[in-house]
TrEMBL record:
Annotated segments matching region Disordered: 1-31
Superkingdom: Eukaryota
Domain Bulb-type lectin residue range list: 29-155
Protein name according to UniProt: S-locus related protein SLR1
Length: 186
């Protein structure tokens, strides 16, 4: 805004603030209509209670603004957090206001605490009744409640393994314990 008069700069700042309020209002309205919203501190547990989805951190600090948060799946019964899938490993989230949003057509969005989309899973075929389900196998899936052929999955985490292979993930049958932790599910 260099080169503008003080009045013009003030007018531009006011316009930006109004635009941000309007955008934030639209995003809040979209989240109200979303199929599911998970905030930090909320989790999704599979039916057999073995796996849990949520946000976890690996920071030793108690300051929420400096912790590094990840979206992931872990074994629920093991005291020391044992993540088996991480949604976005290369860019940890900071702050505490992050949320995972399943929108009304089945897209999955991970937003940081200022609502910037950090990670996005867009579905090829929109779902009419999307559901986010954590299966007993540890597979996080987006199901279309109206289309149950082929399992009705429009997306599944097993197609995108991170640092751990679980039975049923792509490539599980052909890999050995060289660079991956292969966990036997009892």
């Amino acid at each position: 805004m260099e080169g503008y008069s003080p009045q013009r700069r003030e007018m531009m700042r006011d316009r930006n603030k109004a635009s941000q309020r309007h955008t934030q209002g639209r995003e809040e309205e979209a989240e109200k209509r979303a199929a599911k919203v998970f905030k930090n501190g909320q989790t999704l547990v599979c039916a057999n209670q073995r796996f849990e989805l949520g946000f976890f951190n690996v920071s030793s600090t108690n300051d929420h603004n400096h912790k590094m948060w990840y979206l992931g799946l872990w074994y629920r019964e093991i005291k020391l957090l044992t993540a088996v899938w991480v949604g976005i490993m290369m860019k940890p989230l900071r702050g505490f206001g992050m949320r995972l949003v399943l929108n009304s057509v089945g897209d999955l969005l991970l937003r940081d605490d200022v609502r910037t989309v950090i990670w996005f899973v867009g579905v090829v075929q929109p779902a009419s009744r999307p559901e986010l389900v954590l299966l007993d196998s540890g597979n996080l899936v987006i199901k279309d409640g109206d289309n149950l052929s082929d399992g009705g999955f429009v997306w599944q985490s097993f197609d995108f393994p991170s640092n751990t292979l679980l039975p049923g993930m792509k490539g599980f049958e052909s890999r050995f314990t060289t660079c991956y932790d292969i966990l036997e599910i009892v």
